[in-house]
Amino acid sequence: MLHKSIKFLIENKLVAVLLLAFIVGWGVINAPFSWNTGFIPNDPVAVDAIPDIGENQQIVSTEWNGRSPQDIEDQITYPLTSALLGVPGVKTIRSSSMFGLSNIYIIFEENVDFYWSRSRIIEKLNSLPNNLLPSDVNPSLGPDATGLGQVFWYTLEGRDENGNVTGGWDLNELRSIQDYYIKFGLSSASGVSEVASIGGFVQEYQIDINPELMRQYNINLSQIVNAVKNSNREIGAQTLEINKAEYLVRGLGYVKSISDIENAVITAKDYTSIKVKDVAKVFLGPEARRGILDKEGAEVVGGVVVARHGANPMEVITNVKEKIKEISVGLPTKTLKDGTVSKLTIVPFYDRSTLIKETLNTLDEALTLEILVTVLVIVMMVFNLRASILISGLLPVAVLMVFVAMKLFHVDANIVALSGIAIAIGTMVDVGVILSENIIQHLETSEGKKSINTIVYNATTEVSGAIITAVLTTIISFIPVFTMVGAEGKLFRPLAFTKTMALAASIVVALFLIPPFAAILFKKRAWKKKSSFLIHIFSILIGGVAIFYGYFIGLALVAFGILSILTIKEKVKKEHTKWWQLGIIIFTITALLASYWRPLGFQENWILNFVFVALICFGLLGVFKIFSNYYTRILTWAMENRILFLSIPTLIIVLGVSIMLNTGKEFMPSLNEGTFLLMPTSLPHAGVEENKRVLQQLDMAVANIPEIETVVGKAGRTNSAIDPAPLSMYENIIQYKPEYALNT
Q1: For labelling alongside 341, which of 75, 351, 427, 668 has CA 20 to 30 A away?
Q2: Which helix (H) or strand (E) holds 674?
Q3: 94 with 105: CB under 8 angstroms?
């Protein structure tokens, strides 16, 4: 069946062309790079910078303001934890009790669906006994997000039309705008789980009671509380029918101002009502807060956007930015005393899309360099332009097929998963080299006695079994990685998947696409002199257009066209044409490597980088060439001096093990994202003002470092269940200035 499929595609090359177009189109649609092709739809693989290795966790958060951690533990955390132990699929439950807040972390088995576990918790919370918790306590399920869901942080700042900071906004104003306008606007963006606020002051009505007046009027605290509660509600009654028309009867009692609370009646004695204002003072004031946000020494208001579990973080951030543009039109403006118009602006200070783009650019650059190096090696070793085109064309097509598989199997793209593709490049190239060299060998030995289709078919079927066996051996060696569980499995299973899919894609491309295209490329054609001349003129024109738009690879097309025209006019001998063509390709690839790689840095000019790349590439290739020429002698010496030769790899193993044991180990790959997270702590009993003072001094000290672009510090927690930080815990997000200055 395999050989029949190969033969069918060789004989029906149009089917092979359509299959290639289908694979490339589908791969471009699912590519994580978000290529803007214009006419092809875009449905990229979910992409993030780092893999989410957290546990399958849900959070039940309960607030009970003003209560000590011990009261929270005894009356909320312990009863809830005991009740939630019976939820199916639960592996373990952890909890923490702090001032006014209880957080319960329910860890499920890895095979339990994320949203199924949430529904089971909601069922359990709805079926709790009536007297299990205090009457005024309502536990709530945290957002449908993980610890890596915080993808976008921002502050609210007043700025003029030139983007300069103006100030002029009170913290309570900013917090009100954040809570009642911006938060709701950004929450409507697709993929957002929640928008948590932090900083500023939440405005509330506050009642300052005079105990002496309470004693004089013989009023207790519960009477005042009930009076305030009863004054802030509506009462519905029946309907009245007047003149055959029905009217609704209701009592309006919602509090709208301070006077509404002041005039609330507590009790009446001797036909005289005693009101709240008779025993207390009512005023607007800030709510007690457990979180502070500071930017370079100035207290600010901000928020954090949390992406939903399973959403594409890059797509979520894009949606949030579009929503910011939409709601920014409605943000208020204020004219300051000096006449400056201050426009309230949403200013991001942490945007994970920057890291995601850098991660994708790293992969894009790595794949580009690997493909260029591979083509250079193939051209130098095989010395066949057509074979080089076949082998190098295998790589991008196979990579696009991996993107399709990642989309179908819901494998997110991150720096670890995508590195599996880079690892598999070497084996993928080997498949194309084996097949192409066998086709060339059959072409040389056939002497024109067989058709090109037969030659390619025989060459492919001769090595197809060996190719499949060799690749399957590598694939099978990665099977143990798929059995990993926990954090290790989440980290390395995607890598094993992408590497396996890349190798499988290389088999498909090598056995089903390379043969029909090899039959097209290696077929001898008798071009008419005039037609060939026109084709080369067209090639020169295309190269000129490419150069005009900044694609200097067009120089290679121009050089090819000129060389072909000179060959037609017999200015260059045909036997020398091949060497000139290979020379053009080698020079072009080396130039591209020097441009993309820049091993000596951007501070050095392109010529020095080109010379350095040429020395490295041709030096290594020269060493390999010498090794291949003297391989027989080296092998003979190694066989005759077995003990002496085996001492060399033994010494290498010993040195490698000793270095490994004395080198630091890191579970996660290190990322130089240009952002640093500083997390100091203060004394546990430090108050809000002390933490605010220390945080501001820390931010100002860090901001004075010349390499720092900006620093934003957070003390305490945001208004979210996934951030239970105490007030004594700081998180300073430090943005570095760019390491390189380009286009200056």
Answers
A1: 351
A2: none
A3: yes
Please report where in the chains the tokens 């064309």 appear, as a residue.
Answer: 393
Alpha helices in 549-605 (DSSP H): 554-568, 574-597
List, edge to edge, every strand of the sheet that includes 57-63.
Answer: 90-98, 101-108, 57-63, 140-141
Is the whole-model pTM more than 0.90? no
**Measuring CA to CA, how many Å separate 678 from each of 603, 681, 698, 702, 728?**
32, 10, 10, 10, 14
Contact 305, 320 (CB under 8 A): yes
Residue 278 near residue 284, CB atoms below 8 Å: no
What tens digit of pLDDT does each residue of 700-742 get?
999 999 889 899 999 988 888 888 888 889 999 998 887 766 5
What are the distances in angstroms from CA 626 to CA 278, 346, 587, 645?
102, 63, 22, 19
**Is 257 buried (19+), middle (13-18) or exposed (0-12) by CB count in 10 A?**
exposed
Query: What does DSSP say about strands 192-198 and 245-251: parallel, antiparallel, or unpaired?
Result: unpaired
**CA distance readout (Å), 114 to 54, 108, 309, 334, 606:** 12, 9, 8, 46, 52
Helix (H) or strand (E) holding 26: helix 13-30
Tokens for 722, please give them: 């996934």
40 CB neighbour count, 10 Å cutoff: 13
Q: Say which DSSP state 530 is in.
A: H
| Residue pointed to by tokens 């007047």 | 242
Whether residue 60 contacts residue 121, with contact meaning beta carbons closer than 8 Å, is answered with: yes
Label residue 159 left, alpha or beta by phi (over 0 means left) and psi (-120 to 50 means alpha): beta
CA distances (Å), 597 to each of 362, 367, 372, 593, 609, in order? 11, 12, 11, 5, 9
List pLDDT tens digits, range 203-245.
Answer: 889 999 999 999 988 899 999 999 998 888 888 888 888 888 9
Whether the CB-CB separation of 386 and 399 falls below 8 Å is answered with no
Count other Cβ atoms within 10 Å, centred on residue 607: 9
The length of the chain in residues reads 744
Residue 371: closest CA among 391, 400, 386, 401? 391
Question: Which residue in the block uniquely carries the two structure tokens 């020095």?
Answer: 608
565-594 exposure pattern, b = at least 16 Cβ within 10 A, e = fewer:
bebbeeebeeeeeeebbbebbbebbbbbbb
CA distance 604 to 598: 8
Cβ(176)–Cβ(203) under 8 Å? yes
State how far the alpha carbon of 3 is from the alpha carbons of 23, 441, 713, in Å: 21, 20, 65
